[in-house]
């Protein structure tokens, strides 16, 4: 490890570093990030862009007494290094290792857990209000990206922050990116502020003129910069934040450490909400990330020299299959439109956007708006497909219920990253969607078993004249069971294997949901090797529940086993066991599902083994029940 960075071992150590070594420290932090993230994977470009900004915060603030709230939180790696956690980066995002997001249980320097966008101003405002009510004295800083300002929650918080009578600092990290390139009116506004040549040129001319005034010139510049009615306040177009009642500083170069330190110190002295507009470059210091910040937002392990991923892709992902099929369907259906919330690449919709740009809508990080605007499109005669990650769709729950399902509007929800997603941890695991979608009247929920069934399911959904959600996992699509091509019939499961009717008892029926079908195939083979007869059902429709197939399995077997990658409460298993216990009280059941808990970060294989959701653990659970 380099000589300067190795001196950072606990909060506040950066203040012991001589000022002339700050530039070296910034370079060493970037090199450290490259070396570690290239091995573990993680969020790279966003962290490379906030090195000087984070250094400035740690130089000015006193942690952990002062509080920093990181919006989303994937840009908190530098903060973790400077607060004494650099030794944990070898285990970044691994099971029981360092989290890729702020975690209060991990460090007292993490003031608030974050993982979803547009929350930091609300959280910071709440912390500041708690401080003031308890007559405490510390600084609260919320760091929010310009992409997060497309989320309506940020404006709700800004509206209330304007009423603050004591200091509260908001840092707007403006890099013109969320994950993909920013969209919408706020992005245009910030672009105008960022690039207003008339303002910048005027400011430079005034500064040059004042500098030529003997003795007092520099002092006049400093005084003007600290005056509310400065040149900046007069000439920046719109002054949106000032008009809301929030003091605005900037734009300031987020890679000029000295300028950042000065402006944060100045902001601390103002007894009201202050917004510092900081300009940064996402991916700064690493050419491949600067050139393609979207690809290096969240990345698998990669080769530093080339920037190419080390992960070998052997099969298309579920996202790839969805994207290809959607484009095919759009060729013959001119009413088919696609909606995403700032995730055209992650959801696969970038392909649709290129082929059908007028039918593609990226609403920014605004899931609530995405859902309701799709409802409006459906009411207007279009066929919208909303592609969204499972954990992000949670943010549009009321809109699904109130704006889509009450009106029975034919919106398709393509729910990507459903189930365990691994390294991003609690805030990103897609383990609640079966529960929160199934409880809504009028919603249909389908979970395809493999690559071919996802294509058939999407075709069915686009033709379906009511709300429907297709739920599929992250990663490579399952290529097995290709021979089973039963057409999709509404509300009907697919029976894959039946044991002989004269099979000796005990006999087991496996009812597997979506991604768990692959595991169920292995479980069936293991049970049969123990001379236990076994039926296997691909559930397909989680809602409505196929009671006919439950009747059939209950009459044939002494034990029914449901398998799903969702929490137990409210999932398919609970719906099935309620029906079986009411109608077949002598039939035993096991629900294989996730516990009523939040699942931490780690690779999916390790998580499944720990949670006993892997094929070996499931088989052992079944054998133990049979033995009893």
Instruction: Quote the average pLDDT.
Output: 90
**Share of helical residues:** 25-40%
Radius of gyration: 27 Å
- Across the major sheet, the strand order is 7-6-8-9-11-10-15
Distance between the termini: 57 Å
Q: Major sheet: size, sense and barrel closure?
A: 7 strands, mixed
Shape, per Cα inertia axes: elongated
Percent of residues in beta strands: 5-15%
Estimated structural class: alpha/beta
Number of strands: 17
Low-confidence stretches: 226-238
**Helical element count?**
25
Short synopsis of the structure:
The chain is of the alpha/beta class and 628 residues long.
Write out key terms for the chains shown.
alpha/beta; 40% helix; 628 residues; elongated; 7-stranded mixed beta sheet; 5-stranded parallel beta sheet; 25 helices; 17 strands; single chain
């Amino acid at each position: 490890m380099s000589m300067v960075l190795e001196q950072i071992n606990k909060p506040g150590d950066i203040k012991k570093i001589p000022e002339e070594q700050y530039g070296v420290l910034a370079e060493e932090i970037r090199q450290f990030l490259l070396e570690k993230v290239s091995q573990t994977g993680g969020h790279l470009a966003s962290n490379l862009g906030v090195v000087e900004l984070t250094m400035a915060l740690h130089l000015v603030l006193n942690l952990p007494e002062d509080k920093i709230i990181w919006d989303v939180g994937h840009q908190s790696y530098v903060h973790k290094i400077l607060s004494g956690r650099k030794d944990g980066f070898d285990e970044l995002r691994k099971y029981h290792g360092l989290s890729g997001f702020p975690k209060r249980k991990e460090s007292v320097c993490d003031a608030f857990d974050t993982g979803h966008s547009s929350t930091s101003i609300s959280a910071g405002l709440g912390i500041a209000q708690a401080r003031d009510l308890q007559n405490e004295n510390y600084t609260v800083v919320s760091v929010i990206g310009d992409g997060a300002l497309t989320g309506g929650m940020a404006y709700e918080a800004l509206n209330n922050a304007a009423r603050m009578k004591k200091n509260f600092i908001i840092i707007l990290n403006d890099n013109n990116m969320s994950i993909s390139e920013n969209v919408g009116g706020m992005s245009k506004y910030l672009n105008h502020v960022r690039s207003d040549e008339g303002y910048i040129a005027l400011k430079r001319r005034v500064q040059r003129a004042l500098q030529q005034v003997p003795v007092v010139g520099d002092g006049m510049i400093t005084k003007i910069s600290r005056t509310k009615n400065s040149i900046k306040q007069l000439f920046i177009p719109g002054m949106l934040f000032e008009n809301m009642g929030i003091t605005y500083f900037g734009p300031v170069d987020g890679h000029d450490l000295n300028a950042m330190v000065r402006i944060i110190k100045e902001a601390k002295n103002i007894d009201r909400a202050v917004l510092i507009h900081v300009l940064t470059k996402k991916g700064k210091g690493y050419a491949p990330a600067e050139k393609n910040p979207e690809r290096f937002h969240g990345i698998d392990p990669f080769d530093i020299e080339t920037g190419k991923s080390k992960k070998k892709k052997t099969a298309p992902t579920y996202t790839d299959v969805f994207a290809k099929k959607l484009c095919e369907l759009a060729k013959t259906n001119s009413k088919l439109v696609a909606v995403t919330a700032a995730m055209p690449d992650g959801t696969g919709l970038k392909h649709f956007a290129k082929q059908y740009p007028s039918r593609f809508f990226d609403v920014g990080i605004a899931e609530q708006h995405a859902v309701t605007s799709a409802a409006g499109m459906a009411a207007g005669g279009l066929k919208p497909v909303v592609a969204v990650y499972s954990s992000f769709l949670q943010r549009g729950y009321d809109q699904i219920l109130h704006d889509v399902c009450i009106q029975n509007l034919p919106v398709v929800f393509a729910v990507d990253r459903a189930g365990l997603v691994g390294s991003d941890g609690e805030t990103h695991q897609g383990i609640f969607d079966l529960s929160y979608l199934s409880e809504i009247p009028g919603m249909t929920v389908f979970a395809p078993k493999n690559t071919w069934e996802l294509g058939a399911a999407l075709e069915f959904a686009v033709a379906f004249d009511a709300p429907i959600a297709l739920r599929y996992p992250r990663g490579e699509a399952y290529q097995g069971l290709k021979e089973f091509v039963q057409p999709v019939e509404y509300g009907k499961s697919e029976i894959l294997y039946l044991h002989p009717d004269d099979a000796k008892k005990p006999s087991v029926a496996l009812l597997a949901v979506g991604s768990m079908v692959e595991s169920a195939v292995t479980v069936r083979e293991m049970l049969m090797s123990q001379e236990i007869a076994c039926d296997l059902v691909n559930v397909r429709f989680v809602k409505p529940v196929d009671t006919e197939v439950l009747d059939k399995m209950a009459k044939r077997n002494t034990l029914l086993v449901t398998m799903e990658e969702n929490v137990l409460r409210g999932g398919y298993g609970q719906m099935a066991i309620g029906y079986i216990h009411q109608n077949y009280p002598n039939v035993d059941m096991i629900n294989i599902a996730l516990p009523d808990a939040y699942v931490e970060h780690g690779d999916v294989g390790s998580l499944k083994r720990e949670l006993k959701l892997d094929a070996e653990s499931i088989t052992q659970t079944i054998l133990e029940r049979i033995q009893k």
